[in-house]
Design a protein that fits this description.
heterodimer; A: mainly alpha; B: mainly alpha; 6 helices; globular; binds zinc ion
Chain lengths: 268, 183
């Protein structure tokens, strides 16, 4: 039994909090399916909390039809279907899945509809408060991850990683006098990870890449990022004398990572 | 006439300059806010940095890249669920908006790209199927929590929930390539 089969069967259970013996063997020994079973159980518990008022039957059917025709929540892969010997078996499997999931979808639809039509008092302070929750560094890191998800070339990866490293270095310096040594050490650790495991490792890849990018262009690219790391190192070094010893240790870690990265990028 | 025109130009220039002084987005938070936000987001950023680096170290259009991308989205969801449990609606809204952007511009198109490139029957295709299923379940869990949890009565939470629905007609990552094989 492969993981996808197991996970589909867990979804098809009347109550995924109760895993039958046939599946338990796999679930107990497979981290992915174990996590999946736990998530299915959480979903089940959440569904149980949904208030589901009796909805007009036709309206609900229409909503459901829309949802299902737009996209079935779970599309069993072709391989999975083949595992079911007869056509009626696979239809039954599909029907069981669809019924369970459309029930869940219906519950969400109804609940969301109920909540969106229930009048409730307006709150005016939200805008200010949300702005107070906005953390520019987090936003930048999420955007960096979005760009990395789609990055289709080494130069693009380098560009995004270098920007993330710059953002973290700038914030670390900005926090050097107020954050604790522990917190700064975390920030320096993020920087180190991006420079050492990301930037430097991608730079090595770029150098190895035989075609596509001319050597001169490679050198120019790597040199520009090396210069940025050098600037990070210099600015961090200037700050060292002005912060408490505990913070100095964290900043030194960032400084070392910047210098090491610079060397790697320059091929030294 | 020329003088009036000149005055007008100066006024326009001044107005433009003044507008530039107060951009729509807020300036950097005050130091004490920075510190509070760093503490609140420390472990989330750590996870995102790790998954981001992993994504950089995978090839384009592979299930491995999608896997790390989904893990990054999961770490955002975990942070949202924790904030929801505490009833911290404003943090829920902020994170849900970031999550929505990440799924719309990152995870969802990545899934489509990869799915278009690999054979669904290959081991990699199967792995991708599992990841996609997890991504959908993640989204369901998030939506159910925002619908039933401690922050369900907050209007802005409900607005960000609607925004999640707008990701696709069914509120889930868009379907990728239609499954071809029916044998
Ligand atoms: Zn498994």
């Amino acid at each position: 039994m492969n993981c996808q089969t197991v996970q589909n069967q867990i979804l098809a259970l009347p109550d995924p909090r109760d895993i039958p013996a046939a599946l338990q063997q796999h679930v107990l020994h497979c981290a992915a399916c174990h996590a999946w079973a736990q998530q299915a159980a959480r979903l089940e518990a959440l569904v149980a909390q949904l208030p589901v008022p009796p909805a007009p039957g036709q309206k609900k059917d229409a909503l459901l039809g829309e949802l299902i025709s737009a996209e079935p929540l779970i599309q069993p892969p072709a391989r999975l279907t083949a595992l079911y010997r007869s056509a009626s078996d696979s239809r039954r499997f599909l029907r069981r899945n669809t019924m369970y999931l459309s029930g869940l979808a219906a519950a969400i639809l109804v609940a969301v509809a109920v909540y969106s039509f229930t009048p409730r008092p307006h709150r005016h302070q939200h805008d200010e408060v949300t702005q107070a929750e906005d953390y520019p560094l987090l936003r930048k890191i999420v955007h960096g991850n979005t760009a990395l998800a789609r990055a289709d070339s080494l130069p693009r990866k380098l560009e995004v990683l270098a920007q993330m490293a710059d953002d973290i270095a700038a914030d670390t310096r900005g926090m050097a006098r107020i954050a604790s040594g522990d917190e700064l050490r975390d920030m320096a650790g993020w920087y180190e990870k991006i420079v050492k495991d990301g930037l430097a490792s991608q730079a090595r890849e770029l150098r190895k890449q035989p075609v596509g990018i001319p050597e001169a262009e490679k050198t120019r690219l790597l040199e520009s990022y090396a210069a940025r790391l050098q600037a990070d190192a210099r600015m961090t070094e200037q700050l060292l004398q002005e912060v408490p010893p505990e913070s100095q240790r964290a900043l030194r870690r960032l400084l070392e990572a910047a210098r090491e990265g610079e060397k790697t990028l320059r091929g030294q | 006439m020329a003088r009036a025109l000149f005055t007008l130009l100066i006024l326009v220039a001044l107005a433009t300059w003044a507008a530039g002084q107060h951009p729509g987005t807020a300036a950097a938070p005050a130091p004490e806010d920075q510190l509070r936000l760093l503490r609140a987001n420390r472990s989330l950023i750590g996870n995102l940095v790790s998954e981001g680096v992993e994504m950089a170290n995978t090839s384009h259009s592979t299930a491995a890249r999608v896997e790390h991308c989904r893990r990054a989205s999961r770490s955002l969801i975990n942070a949202i669920l924790q904030a929801a449990e505490r009833g911290d609606a404003e943090r829920v809204v902020m994170l849900t908006n970031l999550f929505g952007d990440f799924v719309r511009d990152g995870l969802s198109p990545l899934l489509e790209e990869v799915k278009a490139r690999i054979d669904p029957q290959s081991p990699e295709g199967e792995r991708l199927g599992v990841i996609q299923q997890q991504a959908r379940a993640d989204l369901q869990e998030l939506k159910l929590t925002l619908t039933t949890g401690a922050v369900r009565d907050n209007q802005r939470v409900q607005e960000s929930l609607k925004q999640l629905d707008e990701l696709t007609p069914s509120g889930l990552p868009r379907p990728t390539v239609a499954s071809p094989a029916t044998n």
